[in-house]
TrEMBL record:
An MF annotation (GO) of this entry: DNA binding
Name recorded for this polypeptide: DNA-directed RNA polymerase specialized sigma subunit
Domain of life per record: Bacteria
RNA polymerase sigma factor 70 region 4 type domain mapped to chain residues: 71-123
Cellular component GO terms, alphabetical: DNA-directed RNA polymerase complex
InterPro entries: RNA_pol_sigma-70_dom, RNA_pol_sigma70_r4_t2, RNA_pol_sigma_r3/r4-like, WH-like_DNA-bd_sf
C-alpha cells in the first residue's frame, strides 16, 4: 500500500481527539452510573461474579438444616385452623395470588388477606 492510499484510508478519517473525547465521555457516564446505583463492581462482566456472591454453594449440613426447617414450617402451617392453613398453603406453597384464592373460594379478597395475615401472625408465635 502506498503512502497516499494509506492517508485516504477510512480508518484514519476519525480524528484522534474525537476518539479520546468519546472514550472520556463513556468512562464518565459509566462512573456516574456506578455512583447512582451504588455499584461496587461492574455488573457488565460475564465472569459469574454475581452468581458467586448471590448463590453460595451449600454444604450438606446447610441443606439438611434447610430441609428440617421447611418441614417444621409445614407442620406449623398444618396446625393452623383449616381455612388459614389452606389459604397460606395456596399462597406460599402453590404461588397463587390472593385474588385467585378468593375467586376459587368465592369470597372477598380482603377476607383471604386478613386470614393469611392472622395465620402468619400465629406462625410467628411458633418461631
Amino acid at each position: 500500500m502506498s503512502l497516499p492510499a494509506l492517508v485516504r484510508s477510512p480508518f484514519l478519517s476519525v480524528k484522534p481527539k474525537e476518539t479520546i473525547r468519546a472514550a472520556e465521555r463513556a468512562e464518565t457516564a459509566y462512573e456516574r452510573k456506578m455512583y447512582c446505583y451504588k455499584a461496587q463492581y461492574s455488573l457488565d462482566c460475564e465472569n459469574g461474579i454475581e452468581n458467586a456472591v448471590l448463590l453460595k454453594p451449600q454444604t450438606p449440613e446447610m441443606l439438611l438444616e434447610e430441609k428440617q426447617f421447611q418441614e417444621q414450617v409445614y407442620a406449623a402451617v398444618m396446625k393452623l385452623p383449616e381455612k388459614q392453613a389452606k389459604r397460606i398453603y395456596a399462597r406460599y406453597y402453590l404461588g397463587m395470588r390472593v385474588n385467585e384464592i378468593a375467586e376459587v373460594e368465592g369470597v372477598d379478597p380482603s377476607r383471604v388477606r386478613d386470614s393469611i395475615r392472622r395465620g402468619l401472625k400465629q406462625l410467628g408465635k411458633y418461631f
